[in-house]
Specification:
By secondary structure, the chain is of the alpha+beta class. It is built from 3 helices and 27 strands. The chain has 4 domains: about 130 residues, Immunoglobulin-like (Sandwich); about 80 residues, Immunoglobulin-like, CATH 2.60.40; about 90 residues, Immunoglobulins (Immunoglobulin-like, Sandwich), CATH 2.60.40.10; about 60 residues, no CATH class. Strands 1, 2, 4, 5, 6, 9, 10, 12 and 15 form a 9-stranded mixed β-sheet that branches. Strands 11, 13, 14, 16, 17, 19, 22 and 23 form an 8-stranded mixed β-sheet that branches. Pfam families: I-set, Ig_3.
Length: about 375
């Protein structure tokens, strides 16, 4: 019997002739049987099983990948650890390839040598690869009015379709069905998160880019503010800006600093607050809030602090409250000073007449209020 290597070499030569479309004959000059199986489609990362039937009177068999011999009978010729023998008997010859990759795509041939003639079975392997985004624009910080280009590159098999969309906030008008999204003269309302999608029939891959748009401050219009003498007063300034604005406060043309004449200044993000803890006439004036960032400044917000003097009604309320607090004690003291005798609640006895006159609290309150009103 001939050496097994002989049969492997014969199988290789037979495959070469098959690929060239030439007839192949065994030692007995009998024509070989060639069989083409249907293509096998498999996804990247899965396990591939290759099987061919043996039949009676098989003397030698081998699995080949293009020009490489994977297995010759039970002997493994491939150095790839992913390739292994599953079954080898009179009925079938099966090998497997684990973790299939794109490089495993191509034609595979099972060559069988019988006692009469060689037989080959070939199959073409198609490896599908899910899409993967390989190159994506980084997060961007641009100034308002700039021209922006976002790029997204991906591979996969079948070739993936690539598209762009504005994810947050959602805006259907900002989308693209290509690898590139162009945004000319970008405005502040187009800042946000953009998503690139690469999809084929196997899977979908998505990645995002955050786009920040810088713009100069815009201070909200101010309004006149009135505060009462001796009370706490607050001026608040709001500015829309990216990056956040720094604030400066001015009274007329003079800058005010925190702690200046008992004034407190607090900045928190887009807001700045100026607080008077005890308003006096000296605080009257025009106050300006200026918002500044690296792109510019804005100071349209002028605030007039108008001191509110207490009104006559305010004074009346204060004096009335004071009188009410003193009514009971003053009435009792007056009665005792005139040696009057209190007989029951609200009763005063007149020593001269021997009769008693009743002064109820309600009458007394009306007399006091009448006197106060006459002052005005």
């Amino acid at each position: 019997m001939k050496n097994p290597v002989y049969w492997v070499v014969l199988a290789g030569i037979s495959i070469a002739f098959i690929q060239q479309g030439l007839p192949v004959r065994s030692q007995g000059e009998s024509q070989s049987d060639n069989k083409q199986m249907d293509n096998i489609t498999i996804r990247q990362g899965e396990t591939l099983f290759l099987s061919c039937s043996q039949g009676d009177f098989v003397t030698h068999t081998a699995w080949l990948n293009r020009s490489s011999i994977l297995y010759a009978g039970e002997d493994k010729w491939s150095v790839d650890p992913r390739v292994s023998l599953v079954t080898l008997n009179q009925d079938e010859f099966t090998i497997k390839i684990e973790d299939v990759d794109l490089t495993d795509e191509g034609q595979y041939i099972c060559a069988v040598q019988t006692s009469s003639r060689p037989r080959t079975t070939s199959v073409h392997i198609i490896v599908q690869v899910p899409p993967k985004i390989l190159n994506l624009s980084k997060d961007l910080v641009v100034n308002e009015g700039s021209n922006v280009i976002l790029m997204c590159l991906a591979n996969g098999k079948p070739e993936p379709a690539i598209g762009w969309s504005m994810l947050s906030p959602s805006d259907d008008s900002l989308s693209s069905d290509s690898e590139i999204l162009e945004i000319p003269f970008i405005s502040r309302n187009r800042a946000g998160v953009y998503e690139c999608t690469a999809a084929n029939e196997i899977a979908v891959d998505t990645q995002t880019v955050e786009l920040t748009v810088n713009y100069p401050p815009s201070v909200s219009d101010g309004r006149d503010v009135g505060v009462t003498l001796g009370q706490r007063g607050v001026l608040q300034c709001e500015a829309d800006a990216v990056p956040d604005a720094d604030f400066e406060w001015y009274r007329d043309d003079r800058r005010i600093f925190n702690g200046f004449y008992g004034i407190e200044i607090e900045d928190a993000g887009a807001f700045s607050k100026l607080t008077f803890f005890n308003v006096s006439e000296a605080d009257y004036g025009n106050y300006t809030c200026v918002a500044i960032n690296k792109l510019g400044k804005h100071n349209k917000n002028f605030v007039d602090v108008e001191i509110i003097e207490p009104t006559s009604s305010t004074l009346l309320q204060v004096e009335t409250a004071s009188v009410l607090e003193m009514t009971s004690s003053d009435f009792a003291q007056t009665a005792f000073e005139n040696n009057d005798l209190l007989e029951g609640p609200g009763a005063v006895q007149d020593g001269n007449s021997g009769t008693s006159t009743v002064f109820t609290p309600t009458c007394l309150l009306l007399i006091i209020l009448l006197q106060l009103l006459l002052k005005f």
